[in-house]
Write a structure and sequence with these properties.
alpha/beta; 11-stranded mixed β-sheet; two-stranded antiparallel ribbon; 46% helix
Length: 302
C-alpha cells in the first residue's frame, strides 16, 4: 500500500498521537466553486481547522497516489488545473492505475478518511436521491451507510429530492443529528421541514453519540447537519425561483447524470447574483469550524 497512500507528515503525526484531524474533500475545490474563490476557500477551510487546534487533511489523487493532507502548492494545482478528474468510488482504481490527478467526492473522501483512521469529515452538502428518478442515487449515500465517521454537512444539496434522500438515510440506519436545530437543514436554507433523529447543541454531545455508535460496531455514519449561518441564508422563495430556472435550462440542454448537479449549482449562483455562492462558502466555513470542535471533543474522550 505505500505506493498508493501518502499521508502528509502533519496528518500522520497527528493520527499517531491521537490528536484531532478533520478530513476535507477536494471536489468542491476543483469542480464545486469558481475561481478564485475555490482556492481561497480551500486555504480558508484549512486555516479554520488549524485555528481550532485540529489538523486539516484535504484529500485528493495526485499522479495516481492517494494523498491525505496537501501542501499549499498541491491545493493550488487542484484548484487551478483544468485537467482534474472527479473521482467517485468506482473511479478510484482507474485513477490509481492510470496515474490520474483527481478530486475526491464526498463518497471517496469518506472512504479514504476512514481507511486512514480519521474520525471526522467536513463538507458542504452530501449527494442524494435525484429529482424525478428515485433509482438515481448518488454514490455518497451508500458510502455513508458503510463508513463509521462523523460527517458534518448542511444536509443534501438543494437540487436533489430532499424527502426521498431523508427516507434513504433512515432506511439505511444512518443517524441524522441536527446541530443546534430541530430539523434537517436544506443546504442554502436553514429549514426543510424534514425530521432529524436527535438534536445536539455541543461538540461533546456529538462525540458521545459517535462513540456509542462505534461501541455498538454499527456500520454507517453519524451525519451531523448544521444550518447555514443565518446571515448567509437564501430564502426559500428565492431558491425555488432560481432552481426552477436552472432545472428548465438543464432539461433544454439534455444535461443529466454526474454533470447535472454542478450545472444546477453554477446556474443558481449566476441567476441569484452570487447569493447561493456566498451561502455555499459560508456553510463550508461554518461546517469546518464545527467539525474541528467535534474532532477535538472525540480526541479528548479517546
Amino acid at each position: 500500500m505505500p505506493d498508493i497512500f501518502n499521508l502528509s507528515r502533519e496528518v500522520e503525526s497527528a493520527l499517531t498521537e491521537k490528536r484531532a484531524v478533520v478530513a476535507l474533500e477536494s471536489t468542491v475545490i476543483a469542480h464545486g466553486l469558481p475561481r478564485p474563490q475555490n482556492l481561497e476557500t480551500a486555504l480558508r477551510l484549512e486555516e479554520i481547522v488549524r485555528a481550532k487546534g485540529a489538523v486539516p487533511a484535504t484529500i485528493a489523487i495526485l499522479e495516481g497516489t492517494v494523498h491525505v493532507g496537501l501542501t499549499s502548492a498541491q491545493l493550488e494545482h487542484i484548484a487551478e488545473s483544468g485537467d482534474i478528474h472527479k473521482i467517485s468510488r468506482r473511479d478510484l482504481p482507474v485513477a490509481i492505475a492510470k496515474h490520474w490527478y483527481g478530486a475526491t467526492t464526498v463518497a471517496t473522501t469518506a472512504l479514504i478518511a476512514e481507511r486512514a483512521g480519521i474520525k471526522v469529515f467536513a463538507t458542504g452538502g452530501i449527494g442524494g436521491v435525484h429529482r424525478g428518478d428515485l433509482t438515481d442515487v448518488s454514490a455518497d449515500l451508500p458510502e455513508l451507510a458503510r463508513v463509521n465517521l462523523v460527517i458534518v454537512c448542511s444536509g443534501a444539496k438543494i437540487v436533489l429530492d430532499l424527502p426521498a434522500t431523508r427516507e434513504w438515510l433512515e432506511t439505511q440506519g444512518i443517524t441524522v443529528v441536527g446541530y443546534g436545530t430541530d430539523e434537517m437543514p436544506a443546504f442554502y436554507s436553514r429549514r426543510s421541514g424534514l425530521e432529524i433523529d436527535t438534536r445536539a447543541d455541543s461538540p461533546g454531545e456529538v462525540a458521545v453519540i459517535a462513540e456509542a455508535r462505534r461501541a455498538l460496531k454499527l456500520d454507517g455514519a453519524t451525519l451531523v447537519t448544521v444550518p447555514v449561518p443565518e446571515v448567509a441564508e437564501v430564502k426559500a422563495e428565492r431558491l425555488d425561483e432560481v432552481l426552477s430556472e436552472a432545472l428548465a435550462e438543464a432539461a433544454d440542454k439534455n444535461i443529466a447524470g454526474r454533470e447535472l448537479t454542478p450545472f444546477l449549482l453554477s446556474h443558481m449562483a449566476e441567476r441569484s447574483g452570487g447569493e447561493t455562492l456566498r451561502a455555499n462558502i459560508a456553510l463550508l466555513e461554518n461546517n469546518a469550524r464545527v467539525a474541528a470542535e467535534i474532532a477535538l471533543a472525540i480526541a479528548l474522550s479517546d
